[in-house]
Task: structure prediction
Amino acid sequence: MEAPLTIVVRGWAKSVTRMPGRDDTVLRVHGIGDLIGDLPMLPTLAGHERLLALTEMEVLSVSATQTSRLFTADPTLHRVVGEVLIERLAEADRRSAAVAGGEAAQRVAWLLAELAVRHGEQSGQNIRIPVPLTQDELGQLVGTSRESVARALTFLNRRGFVRHGRRSYTVVDLDRLVDYGQWSEPPSGLQPVRNAVESDRESEGFSVSVVTEKETEPRPQSGGLPGFWSDINEQQQEHLLRLGRTRRFRQGDHLCHQGESAEHVLVIRNGWTKICVRNAEGQETVVAVRGPGELIGEIGTISGGVRSATVTALRPVSALSVSADRFQHFLREHEGAWDKVLATMNGRLEQTTRRIVENGTQDGTKRLARFVLSLIEGSGVPVVTGGVEIPALSQAELASCADTSKETVSRAFRNWREQGAIRTGRRRTVVLAPERLREYAGLSAEE
Result:
């Protein structure tokens, strides 16, 4: 039976996941207006998560059949779901950067600023955060221990940024908290989805219920998503080729820049790229690698905003460039194309979420091994003499991707070379024994 689409009307919930051999880890918090259910085009949205009620909840539930009718009758809802995924991706990227780049007090400050702006209730000059999270749960959200959270809250209290009690947090000086936590404003939220369905909440297939039980069952975990190009059909590929033009980039060229207007999307045909995000202090972090078949620039195009990252060619790259207007025309013309775009974004959200969880629960060498394995799966190229070559990232870039230090990458690579697991050259890494990396990553043969 297909799961319904569910929207929070009242109360609070948390999404959690469980790493092998560890307790639940909190991934995100859901409040009023948030979508917490599946969609017909994304049957495994957040499929690795379980939902736990933090308080008594009232939810608006829309049956799978009625959801399908809604999306058929109003194709613009696909754009709204795109906005939902954009918000979750942006939140996950901000959280990933906070976890990787700051001391515990800065991480907690960032999280409290995020919760205050997204869910806070104004009370005079203060902002009360109504989400009843324990200090342990705060720690899970930013990859640190409960003891570190306790020390951070004491520090932030003494600085006059926040006040806290048992599962209660009040922001006293949001401006200073934002500055200290290096928080940046998120895109618009999910309100349009809630408005779209609430107007017909008494219609067939809609129901409002109060959730008091503590847990919902996890949905089946999704497999790896193919690249966007191989995911669309031949007719759609031919149409995109007619709408766009091929562009070529040399190694080191920028395909697009963070902050610039999103005037086109790109589909990589050959070559590899790195995705980098620069913070307010100018520090650059590599957050992902994209290869053949991958779609680039869809977030800014859908949201009508600016580029959220800089994309740089790691090797010579050829890409299909399609203007924003023409890409929007393509999505209107081809029923189902929106689903492929949303599936691509959902896959990236899952990747970022896994990275956040692993950052809080594994050491640097394990994270590095898992990242290299993900490169093999998504972008690896078989070598005639044996092994699989991965994208040409420097050790510093690999460290950035795995949220670890360059020294950790250097030590791990030296050990892996001695064990015959990899062969390296200048910006060239060939994995000779992936099974060895699986052992280093703590993965079983089935994972």
